[in-house]
Design goal:
Blueprint (H helix, E strand, L loop, with lengths): L5 E5 L6 H15 L6 E5 L5 H8 L5 E4 L16 H6 L4 E4 L2 H6 L4 H13 L3 E6 L3 H5 L3 H12 L12 E4 L13 H19 L1 H6 L1 E5 L4 H8 L6 E4 L6 H8 L2
Parallel strand pairs: 1-2, 1-8, 2-3, 3-4, 4-5, 5-6, 6-7, 7-8
Helix pairs in contact: 1-2, 1-11, 5-7, 7-8, 10-11
The structure holds 2-phosphoglycolic acid (PGA).
């Protein structure tokens, strides 16, 4: 089964609207006519209107780094999925490790957000991954299976088609340490097997599983050309147009 790769930029808490617009203006010509892979940008909420407007005439998708599970309400500081859709966002990250680590997001919260995203037709990228101590203790497979089954509670095979998973070993995020293509492919195999157990072989075979964690232009090809790896979620190396374009064209 061939899965179209998705190359996604997680800008984290960087860029002003003017810098975001300048990125898009420089980036779009670099990827003009590139149809092999899908491309998505994930800026901070205040940048979303500028970035969706700048990407409007292109095939580059734009999404949020986080949404609340409630559609609206008294949740000071949060972004609602209705607001995301209203400014033209089509995707969202869910459960990024920085959300789990610094904002106490649990698998239960990730699950609620996943239900909200699917209900509203927003493409969810569910982020999972083990921390270093878990890997060193030989617990990687258990952690990944728990995160997948927790995220997917109550999700039916019929509803699951839009879901993308990003495997991001926490020890590789922002550290310059990348999982070897073999380590990443092995983890992706574990994740896909768990999806097959929960939602069936057909859904699992079609689901895109991205790799994230210190993806750079010089390691992107080795990672993404693995059969099990269906694209990348890129942090640091997505902040510059030429570097992110080089990854898109791995
Ligand atoms: P990194 O970040 O590429 O800077 O390691 C990846 C991520 O956090 O999604």
């Amino acid at each position: 089964m061939s899965r179209k790769a998705l190359i996604a930029a997680n800008w984290k808490m960087y860029k002003t609207p003017a810098e975001a617009k300048a990125f898009v203006d420089a980036f779009l010509p670099l990827v003009a006519g590139h149809t092999r892979d899908a491309i998505a940008l994930f800026p901070s909420p205040v940048l979303l209107p500028a970035v969706t407007a700048a990407c409007n005439a292109s095939s580059v998708a734009v999404g949020a780094q986080n949404i609340h599970f409630a559609e609206e309400g008294a949740y000071t500081g949060e972004t609602s999925i209705i607001q995301l859709k209203a400014v033209g966002g089509t995707h969202t990250l869910i459960g990024h490790s920085e959300r789990r680590q610094y904002f106490a997001e649990t698998d239960e919260i990730v699950n609620k957000k996943l239900h909200t995203a699917l209900k509203h037709g927003i493409v969810p990228i569910v982020c999972i991954g083990e921390v270093l101590e878990e890997r060193e203790a030989g617990r990687t497979a258990t952690v990944l299976k728990t995160q997948v089954s927790g995220a997917f509670a109550g999700i039916t095979p019929e509803a699951a088609a839009p879901i993308v998973i990003a495997y991001e070993p926490v020890w590789a995020i922002g550290t310059g340490k990348t999982a070897t293509p073999e380590i990443a492919a092995d983890a992706h195999g574990i994740i896909r097997a768990e999806v097959a157990k929960l939602l069936g072989a057909e859904v699992a075979a079609a689901m895109r599983i991205l790799y994230g964690g210190s993806v750079k232009p010089d390691n992107a090809t080795a990672l993404i050309s693995q059969e099990e790896i269906d694209g990348a979620l890129v942090g640091g190396a997505s902040l510059k147009p030429d570097s992110f374009a080089a990854i898109v064209k791995y």
